[in-house]
Structure formats: structure tokens, C-alpha cells
# Entry
Amino acid sequence: MRREPPRAIGDYAPLFFPAVMLVVFFVVPFSTMIAVSFFKRDQAGFYTPDFVTANYERFLSAFFGGVLGFSLMLAIMVAAVCVLVAFPFTYLLTQSSRRVQTIWLVVLLSVLSLSEVIIGFAWSTLFSRTAGITNLLVAAGLMAEPQALLPGFGAVLTGMVYQALPYTVLVLYPALVRLDPTLMEAARTLGASPPRAFFNVIVPALRNTIVATLIMVFVFALGSYLLPQILGRPQHWTLSVLITDQAIYQSNMPFAAAMAVFLVLISLALVGLTLLVGGRREASA
Amino acid sequence: MRVFKGVWFFLVALFLAGPLIVVAGVSVNEKQSLTFPPEGFSLSWYGQIFTDDGWRAALFSSLLLAACAAALAVAIALPLAWFLWRRIAPWANVFQLLGVAPFILPPVITALGFLTFWATVGAYGQPWTAVISHAIFFVTLPLVTLSLGFASIDRSLVEAAATMGADDRTVLRTVVLPLILPYLVSGYAFAFVLSLNEYIVAYMTVGFTMETLPIKIFNALRYGYTPTMASVSIFFVALAALVFGLIARFGDLRALLGAMPSDGK
# Structure
């Protein structure tokens, strides 16, 4: 049966339920959130309809500038570390047997599906004084006594890399597994060593994939809402944490909504900017 | 090269497994203390998941929520994926984009959208709002697996059925559905496992009226650690590994994640 354009109105029937669900429960909530970001906070209830820009004006403070800068810096670091580790790993994985690939994919999916709560708990245990890795170092005689490695920036970064690494591998996997194997063979035939072929042929060939992956991991890391809270100090809180905090604990929904709209705009702007830069470089190359 | 590969694989494996090994160690402590290496050995903290009222209730609400949400997600994704495969209607791709968007955006955004929405319509805190919210949040997964499934169908099979006089409905029931069943099951399983582990959307929709397991773990984190949290975490890892292992066993996990189907190696 060939694909054909819908002719009768009845041909659209299958689209009805999905369209209604997605519009009512995604488009409408998203628009509600944008509307609420202009509402006024109501101490007793949630909010009162209004049109004020006060929620947005609160961004124009050194405090929010700092939080925003920190969130972006953290997400960039997470993305960079993840791609640096995951790219060679994924390449080597695609060179392995099907069986090895499948086992790794099961492991990666299992870790990826872990709740942020569980990841936070696991790393806070690993970094703790009583159950942490420092106990192993003490046992090995490398350290005098166990100590806690959290809360701190290192703990936040480690936890977020842990969360994003399986995601990075799975984003890279389709491009690498479909890579033409003759590319590598040609490079090898011409006398390149495997590392040389990898850096001079594979990496440049997949430059666009790498940039796209960096952006996706960056946005993924921006969304981390619990790890900075569990593993870090208040100065390590990101925009996502602040949004949760304002919405739930301070019950200031209009302000939380304004921050969320801001986060969407920032993500979109950065993605657009990166695409623009990438496209220009592509054109000049 | 081979040595390098071995070392790289080992380091990644150690990094991924490290925290889980420590948590697994903590979960078998005999006394109520979080020490590693564990003191004594006891599986009682695993029993606690089922015997303690609070943990058991949280486990059941999580399972129920995940089962319903994944079913609803599949019910939304299946007709949409079928329509996109069957018809040429470029504007309908908008709905595909809508189906993928909640998954790409930072989760806090989607969660806050639901919170404001349910609060505005006055249903905030009702358990069923979490089902709908999770179904929309995870509709991406069955949508992607089903789209892959439809793309893998050999159109000449469908053509043959139509030539023999089968109408759309018959073709769908006798040819198309059996062929995409594995993709449907994997889409359901992906959504189920992720819904089970999801925290922020559940918390912002029903956080104050219902405790799912991730919410319960987070609440417990704030009042002090117990080994039960460790055993629940390991239980969840094992459950996820089991589900994905089954998909890999009975389906082509590599193809689901983007490899060409049936490329020999």
C-alpha cells in the first residue's frame, strides 16, 4: 500500500486522539506557564491573573547573573567531559562484536533510566565519610583517615557527568555505528596508525555529529535539578534547582514560570547560535 | 590499540558501576548504618521494601503509575506513528515535533508547565493527573520506537495484502500490527522504566498527595539515610537491567538505538 494523502475527512480520524492529547496536555500547559510568568504572586493561593513584568525584572540582579553564569559554565563542562570520554568509547564500542555492544547498551540504558534521586543518593554515599571511597584509600594506606568529599563542586560535576555519560554514548551511537568502515580501512591502507586515523579521519568526518552532541548534552545537563542540591552547596545551585525551589518551597509560581521561560529562551538561543557558527564554518570550509 | 580499548572500557565500566557497588554494599549491612565495606550480611533491607507499609505503598503507586502512563503513551503514539507512515501529510509532522519536545526540553520546564496547568484547572494533586503528565512526558519513547518499526516494514507486504483485497483495517490487524508488535512492546517498556524512575514531574503534580518511590527516597534523604534506600535503589537498577535485557534478548536492541537492522558483524 503506497503512502497517499488523506482524501476523506475520515482519513484523519487516527490523528484525532494524539492531536487532542498533545495539544491539551502539552501546548496548553506550556502556554499556561508563559501566561503565569506575567501573573502576580498570591501569598494565599497560587497566583492572581495580571500583567506584570516584575517577575522578569528580578533577573536583573547580580545574584541571578551569577546563577545563570554558573549554570551555563557547569553544563558546558559536563558536555565537554562527556563527549571527550564518550566519543572514543562509543567508537571502540561500535568496533566490538554485536554481543558486546548489546551488553553495553543494556548497561548504559539501565544507568540512564536511573532516577536523579538514586544517582544523587549513590554518589553521596560514595563520597561520604562512613561508606566512601576514602575508606578504600585508608585501607590501602594512602590516607590517614576517611573524609567526606561532599558537598562541593567536584561532587556536583562528577554526579552530573555520571548522569549524562550514558546519554552521550546513546546520542553518538547511531552516527558511529553507521560510519562507513571503508573510511578507516582506507586510512590504514595509506599507512596511518590507528590513533592517527582516528584523529585525522574519523573525528573530522564526524565534526557535525560532535557539535550536535555537545549541544544536546549541554541542554540535558542544564536540566539537572537535583544533583546540585544533593551533592553541592547553595552556591552550586543551578537555574533548574532554583525553579524547583521557587515553585515548590517558596510557592512563588509566577517567578518560577518566568525563570523557566528564561531557561527555554537561553537554551534555544545558545542552540541557535551554535548552529549558526557551525553553519558558517561549514560554508567557509 | 587492543590494550587501549581494554583500559578505556574498564575505566568507563568502573565509573558507571562504582556508585552502584557501594550502594549494593551498603544495602546488605546488618545494622542500620551506612558503612562500606558492609558490617555483617543481611538481606532484611530488601524485605523492608515489601514489609514496611510506607515503602510498599510507594512501590505500588510507582508501579501503577508507570503501567498506566506507559499504556497511555503508547495509545497516543501508535495512531500518530501509523498516520505518519500511512499518509503523506507534511503538516502532521508538527505533532511528531510536539511528541518529541517534552523529552528534549529541560524536565523542569515540562514539570512546571504541568504544575501551572493542573493548578489552573483545579485538578492539582489528583493521582490521575500524574498518569497523563507522565504519558505526555514519555510519549517520545514509543513514538520513536514505533516510527522505527513502521519504517522497517516492507511495503510490498502491505501492497500484496491490499492487492488480495484486504482493506485498511484488515491490513492493519493482520499485517502491520504483528510486524510492529516488538517495537510497541519496547516502546512500552522504555516508557515504563523511565516513568518508574521519574521524579520531578511526579513531584510537581502529585508530590503532596501521593508518594512514588523516587519521591519517597528523596523525602527520606532529607531526614537521614537508611539502608532501605540503598536496597530500593539496587532493586530499581536490577529491574531496569532486567527489562532492557529482555528487550535485547527478544528484539534487536542495537537497531532500536540506531544501528542498521541486520548489518552483520
Strands of chain A lie at 40-41, 47-48. Chain A touches chain B through 93 residues (CB under 8 Å). The two ends of chain A are 44 Å apart (CA to CA).
